[in-house]
Here is the input.
Amino acid sequence: MKTRARDLMMVLVVLAAWAPTHALEVSHDPGFRVEWTLDPPRRNLVTVAGYVYNERQDMVRYVQVRIQVLDAAGAVTAQRFHSVVGDIASNGRAFFNGVVPAGGAAYRVSVASFQATGGGGGQ
Here is the structure.
């Protein structure tokens, strides 16, 4: 029985090493919801991937997310902008994937800009 428990622990340790370092995070911007995960660091970089949900009444395009790296005090130490793949219909979602420097105490993802297709302007 001890061998089985030890083997199970080894499997759990290996799976934990492959899993994202942060569980799903959710950010709310006016008209948008962003869900994302943070992969384990590689070569001093981390990959942030997720979805932007369009909660607006109109379709949006040219959506860009801002991924910020925060230190322990909450100050921004780095930020990168990444494009969302495709247009996002009202009540739809689209994927994004970006790379930022590793080593942050926390990370923040938000919608930085977009173009509304219904004649209204974006941010």
Notes: The beta strands are 22-29, 32-38, 45-54, 60-70, 76-83, 93-101, 106-116. The two ends are 60 Å apart (CA to CA).
